[in-house]
Amino acid sequence: MTFKILHDRIAIIRDEKNTEEQTKSGLFITESAQNPIHFGTVTHVGLGRVSEISKERIELDVAVGDRVFYPRAAGRDFRVDGVDYLLLTNEEIVGVIPND
Q1: Could you tell me the residue range of the domain that residue 58 belongs to?
Q2: Does 80 fall in a domain?
Q3: What are the tens digits of pLDDT across the range 42-60?
């Protein structure tokens, strides 16, 4: 099943990473205590939101294929055809590594 993202929403697939890290002394650090910034790859984008003042469409800052970074608590998880995605708004993304 294919899907379409609306408005200023962006679907990404999170980068794979270990959920725990072990220190030299043997302590385990959970994902929530590690880096608060996460990375992922944009898979779907909406057309952007419409300005309430000018009624013009405001384009998104990212494109399909871009790698983005975002805060750990951002977005909502969803699954389509067994694939896990994270749904973010344009404002939740704090940086982009363009797909050259």
Answers
A1: 9-16+35-97
A2: yes
A3: 999 999 888 889 989 998 9
- CATH number, domain containing residue 59: 2.30.33.40
Amino acid at 69: F
Classify residue 54 by its DSSP letter: T
From the CB of residue 70, how many other CB atoms can be counted at a distance below 10 Å?
21
Q: How many domains does the chain have?
A: 1
Q: Which of 58, 78, 99, 81 is nearest to 11 (CA)?
A: 78
- State the pTM of this model: 0.76
Question: Rounded distance, CA 42 to CA 77, Å?
Answer: 14
Q: How many CA atoms lie within 13 A of 28 on its CB side?
A: 5
